Amino acid sequence: MRAYRALALAAAVGVYLLILLGGLVRLSGAGLACPDWPLCHGRLVPPLQGAVLIEYAHRLTAAGVSLLALVTALSAFRVRAVVPRAGATALWVLAIVAVQIGLGALTVKLRLTPLLVTIHLGVAELFLAAVLVQAVGALREPAPAPARTASFRQLVRGTGAATYVLILIGGYVASSGAGAACPDLPFCRGATIILADAGALFHMLHRGWAVVVAALVLATAAAARRVGGRSIVIAADLAAALVVLQFALGVLNIATRLAPIVRGAHLGVATLLFGTLVVLGAMSAAHPATAMGRLLRRERQPLPTIAGGSVEERARALPWGGPGASSSVLRAAARAVGDYAALMKPRIIALLLITTATTMAVALPHRLRLGVLLLTLLGGTLAAGSANAFNMYVDRDIDAVMRRTCLRPVPAGRLRPAQALGFGILTGLLSIGVMAWGVNVLSAILSTAGIAFYVGVYTLWLKRATPQNIVIGGAAGAVPPLVGWAAATGHVALPAAVLFAIVFLWTPPHFWALALGKTDDYRAAGIPMLPVVRGAGETRRQILIYSVVLAATTLLLYYPLQTLGSVYLAAAGVLNGLFVALAIAVAWGRAPWAPAALFGYSIVYLALLFGAMVIDRILLG
Question: Could you tell me the sign of the dihedral formed by the alpha carbons of 295, 455, 109, 52, in that order?
Answer without folding.
Answer: negative
